[in-house]
Amino acid sequence: MKVLITGATGNVGLALLKALADQSSIEVVAGVRDMAHDKAHFPVLEGLECRLFDFEKAETFDTALQGIDLVFLLRPPHIADIPRYFAPLIQKIKDMGIAKVVLLSVQGAERSNIIPHRKIEKLILEHGLEYIFLRPSYFMENLTTTLLAEIKAHRTITLPSRQAQFNWVSVQDIGAMAAYLIAHFDSHKNQPLVISGRENLSFGDVVQRINHLTHAEIRYKSVNPLTYYFLKRREGQPRDKVMVMLVLHFLPVLQGPPQISDRFEAIMQRAPTSIDQFIADNRSFFLS
């Protein structure tokens, strides 16, 4: 089976490529935006077929999808206009006779029509594709990517999340489970699968863990949604990205604690990575 991995050089994409290296039955095609740059900077791409693929350039879709049996699809963080970018892509996937899609969605997508991931799920359903909606909880790796610049510059994490509970999951676990689901697609198709960690913790809780385990001195600052919006816009962040971050970090205030799922353990036959283990493994990120 030939599989196109979109977002191949992102955190989840790289974890997935690493996990797929053990799946001899899968012929992997990595979708990349800059062939020369990405091959030079990402050793995991060595020996893989790479094809030019850009969500924002529909002219790359035909060649990237040629001969593909299954597409692993995700939403780049900066893309919020789903009708503009994903509707043509899903239509092209259907037109080219590709029946199978594994979508990286998000836990709780089914409860909110404003979440971009839910809009993509609906497009896939409307086009009659076979699917697996992989719905992970909150990425631990956001601490070492999206939120890292503020941690490094100000020793703070500022969000509109109050003391809302988040469930924390490792991208490495997501990649491992996605690889398994791709290899065993028919056994799990046409259903959503939630992947979560074992603990629900607020950002205040997690910052306390970070400080305790690494001896860092980081503060969590909760602000109201409007303050957060204007703060991030003044920092120069695009409106769409700020709105997605708002939804991601404020909705849990309204929704209550997320459900803890045992699907990862049932399918992968091991425990998910704990937040304490993640902090210990990434200690250097949190030190000034």
TrEMBL record:
Annotated organism of origin = Salinispirillum sp. LH 10-3-1
Q: Which InterPro entries match?
A: Ergot_Alk_Oxidoreductase (IPR051604), NAD(P)-bd_dom_sf (IPR036291), NmrA-like (IPR008030)
Q: What is this protein called?
A: NAD(P)H-binding protein
Task: Tell me the ranges covered by the NmrA-like domain, including all copies.
Answer: 2-224
Classify the source by domain of life: Bacteria
Q: Which Pfam family would be a valid example here?
A: NmrA
